[in-house]
Amino acid sequence: MLDVLKVIILGIVEGITEWLPVSSTGHLILVGDVLKPSMSDAFMEMFNVVIQLGAIMAVVVLYSHKLSPFSPRKTSKQKMPKAIPRTMRRQSRSRTRLSPMPLPLSA
């Protein structure tokens, strides 16, 4: 087998297992041991790091609109945190300043 084909197979394994709830690193190591590319150990370590970095960056780019609170794709309702109850959301939009809070006087 050519080393280029082995590298392509390793890339496919990384691409598939990155989306599954299993260790993509473990699969990459196992498939690398089975295929045994004729490259140095230092190169294979660097290759594993670079291919995983590429997979992580693909996930970040793909989901950047969901992760960013300032995404133009989101509606104003989606930009508001869901942890805030609806009544508070309405109040926060209608009020522009905070109302005074009464404080107890000490004797």
Overview of the structural elements:
The protein has helices spanning 3-17, 24-35, 41-62, 64-67, 76-79, 86-94. With 107 residues, the protein is an all-alpha fold. Helix 1 (3-17) packs antiparallel against helix 2 (24-35).
Estimated structural class: mainly alpha
**Fraction of residues in H or I helices:** 55-70%
**Unreliable spans:** none
Instruction: Provide the residue-averaged pLDDT.
Output: 78
Terminal Cα span: 89 Å
Order of helices and strands: HHHHHH
Radius of gyration: 26 Å
Shape: elongated
Estimate what percentage of residues fall within beta strands.
under 5%
Most strands sheet: none
Number of helices: 6
Number of strands: 0
Keywords:
107 residues; mainly alpha; elongated
In short:
62% of the residues lie in helices and 0% in strands.
What is this structure's SSE topology?
Layout: H1 3-17, H2 24-35, H3 41-62, H4 64-67, H5 76-79, H6 86-94
Helix pairs in contact: 1-2
